Amino acid sequence: MGFDSLRFNKGMGYLLRHVFITFFVVALLGTYFYQRHQTILNDELSAIIDHQTENISDVDRHFSRIIQTAAQDLSIIAGLPTLSNFLDSKAKQTTEAEQMFIHALKSFVQIREYYDQLRLLDMKGMDLVRVNWGSKGPLVVPREKLQDKSTRTYFLEAKKLKDDQVYFSELDLNIENGKVEIPHNPVIRLARRVKSPGGREAILVINIFGQKLLHSFVEKAEKLPGRFFLVNELGYYLHNPDETKEWSQYYEYKYNIAKDFSQETWEKMIGPMVKSFGRPEGLWVTREVSNPLVDPNYPNHKIRALFLLDQETLVKLREPILKEELNKFTVISILIILGSAFIYRLMIQRRKLLQKEIEAQAHIQNLSKLASLGTLAAGISHEINNPLAIIRAMAIMLKDKMPMQDAVAEKLFRHQDEAIERVATIVRGLKSLTGPKVDLVQNFPIGEVLHDMCELSKLRAKQSRITIDCHFLDGDTLVMGDRAQLHQVIMGLITNAFDAIPEDKNGTVILEGHLDLDRYKVVIRDNGIGISEKNIEKIFDPFFSTKPVGKGVGIGLSFAQAYIRAIGGEIRVNSEIGKGSAFTIELPRFQQEEKL
Amino acid sequence: MKLKGKKFLFIDDEEVLLFAYRYLVEAEGAEVHTATDLDSTLALVKTHQFDYVISDFNMPMVTGYEVLVKVREFNSSAKLFIISGTVNIDYLKKADTHNILSGTLEKPFTREKLLSLFA
Predict the structure, then answer these.
(1) Does A152 score more than 50 pLDDT?
(2) What is the C-alpha to C-alpha distance for residues B90 and A481, in angstroms, rounded to an integer?
(3) What is the CA radius of gyration of chain A?
(4) Among A373, A365, A484, CA closest to A430
């Protein structure tokens, strides 16, 4: 019982250890895939940040280019001879000079996609010429629709300019009669004074189409995950993915960065350079976009580009990556667990095999112990029984020689004889170790014994150059007798086969078996030294042996024959000197009728 | 005097035992011869026809069984017995491959058991 429970604990220990190692590997793998997902996410995030940083810088460059182009266009138009001709002609009617100037303006509106209007005001603020961008192309506003702009900031500011200075307005909404124009039409105005050689002055104005400009800024940025904003100096939205928040400075409900996020976030953004920083709401990238041409003495109305990678977006980005890595992890884990289970099975099988081997070796040792015990018993019984026989015989003779009947002497002789019988009984007990016991009611499948014998022989053969070859059919045939005795007989024959092969020879021992009518034939064949004709008749005799003293007792084959005959079988031998021997055992098949 | 006129041959390497056999069997009126090895046995069986030949099992060089197999060649009508202190008697009967034994006797034997062999 102690042994069993020990083995059980050991088995559980192995299982636990195996499960623990597997779990450890899977956990390690889990950590690896989690780290991997984090790395992939970080790479993706930094790629997005890089792109948005680039986009934000693009916004700045784009803005500068457009402003510069517009400023250049102003000076080009200011220097056009058609402008001078137009200003100097005093005619009230449409003149050729006017037509030519309008044509020039039309071509600028046509070429520059961001121009909403080009106009020329006289020094009182009245429109002289105005070309709009219509739905399909440049559109000249008829004279009767020209307006008085004398009260507009840009007119008043432009009037104060020196010769080649340019006025830049803020990007804001067009207000008509004190009301915000709907739909929103944000505009940037550039203005400058022009003067003809004839001394006439006027103010040239370019309106830049704010909506188009803003759209070009956010077009690329909005293709990436996250939110992109453009705000003015106070943090009011010029662009917001949520359109209802745009231009709210003109309305009752005001939305800006400080209000939507926090004052702290807003304060962190202040400054001209590219900045990126984390806030509870997410990761920000921002930079100021400003007009490079503005006179340092004038207010520079700044635009700020903002990119926010918010928590929601982070979750959305993380989800597919995590899912993919989790899938990989799951598949590999399952493979590892299956592999581990397989390895565990192999290990268990190997351990069982090892256990079997150890048991088999113990069995062999036990058998040889039994054999030597048998030898010892045989020796002892001889050594004791012979003198005991002499003692008893002499006692008989002594008693006969007694001169007269004597009750006391009779009693003494009886005690002596009882003592002799006691010794004889003990020795008889020892002798039971050497003889076969026969029980014809028992039966068992022969294949089991042959299989055991084969395995045992293979174990034994490991220590020699002998090859064991086993092939037996009809293993489930039931044969009569005692399994242990048959074990002993076959093992004895195999041992003889081993002993018949010289140590320096590559020997083969073949164990065959098959059913032949109602007898099962077992053949043990070797390619050893063989048995001489002289000896072959005597090999089944009790105590006949060719083995050196101490190695064999000569009891094996006679025992084998005695046992096999006792169960109604037969044992035969064929042998040739130098070629080997074959022992055939014929075992009667167990018949159910015989039991009755 | 049940065994009067019968010819016995006892074979044993223990001369004291041969002396005891002789005493016990001659008391029944039999004619007793003894031998201590194979050669002296063969010399006797070649010249005598015995009614009973009884051999010890453990002999120098040979077993009693081998001796009896030889004896059978010359004394075909003799009843052959093995006396043994060594091996299990039942086993010896089964191991009688030449089918020559009429009986066996275990050592140490009593007078009654010895004589009952020849009854």
Answers:
(1) yes
(2) 17
(3) 58
(4) A373
Q: How far apart are CA A199 and CA A187, in angstroms?
A: 31
* CA distance linking residue A371 with residue A383, whole number of Å: 18
* pLDDT one-digit tens code per residue, A278-321: 898 988 999 888 777 777 777 777 889 899 988 888 888 889 99
Q: What angle do CA A472, A488, A446 make, to 5 degrees?
A: 30
Search chain B and give the residue with CA nearest A422.
B108
Q: Beta-strand (E) ranges in A210-294? A: 227-232, 237-239, 275-279, 282-289
Strand pairing report for A138-140 and A167-168 = unpaired
For chain B, percent of residues with pLDDT exceeding 70: 92
Give the span between the Cα atoms of A392 and A398, in whole angstroms: 10
Q: How far apart are CA A452 and CA A461, in angstroms?
A: 14
Q: Do B91 and A435 lie within an 8 Å CB cutoff?
A: yes
In angstroms, what separates the C-alpha of A471 from chain B's closest C-alpha?
30
Helices A2-78, A96-111: crossing angle, 10 deg rounding: 170
pLDDT, position B88: 60
Structure tokens at A554: 């000569």
Q: What is the CA radius of gyration of chain B?
A: 13
CB contact under 8 A, A381 and B91: no
Task: Give yes or no for residue A9 having a pLDDT over 60.
Answer: no
- Which residue out of A423, A431, A437, A563 would a mutagenesis test of the B interface target, given it has the greatest number of B Cβ atoms within 10 Å? A431
- Say how far apart CA A146 and CA A79 lie, in whole Å: 24
Question: Quick check: A5 pLDDT over 50?
Answer: no
B65 chain-A contacts, CB cut-off 8 A: 541-543
- pLDDT digits over A409-444, tens only? 888 888 888 888 888 887 777 665 554 445 555 678
- A38 to each of A33, A44, A277, A283, B57, how far by Cα in Å? 9, 10, 19, 16, 93
Q: What is the pLDDT of residue A555?
A: 59
Do B63 and A544 make contact, defined as CB atoms within 8 angstroms? Answer: yes
Contact A194, A203 (CB under 8 A): yes
CA gap A332, A25 in Å, rounded = 11
- pLDDT one-digit tens code per residue, A544-558: 666 654 455 555 787
